[in-house]
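Hey, can you fold this one?
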Amino acid sequence: MALTKEKIINSIYNQVGLSKSRSRTVVERLLEIMKQALEGGEDLLISGFGKFVVKHKSARRGRNPKTTEDIQLRARKVMVFKTSGVLRDKINKRSKD
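Sure. Predicted structure:
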């Protein structure tokens, strides 16, 4: 089961005590700020969580797997996410002593 935007809004509503509409506004605005930063080419670093980075991929030669025809893939941007060490350890249930 995935954590959805609606579930995040409900968690804020239940745990923080903001109204449902205010919780929705906060989540929507936060996501908009994140999108604008990434669209502008900025990295997005959330301490203890991870880093989103927009990388540029050059044009390259590819192959259509259905027809085995050679094709030229255009240059594009991709977003990469790298987890923080803290989150990676929690996911793998390692404890720091």
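The helical segments are 5-16, 20-39, 85-91. Let me know if you want another pass with a different chain boundary.
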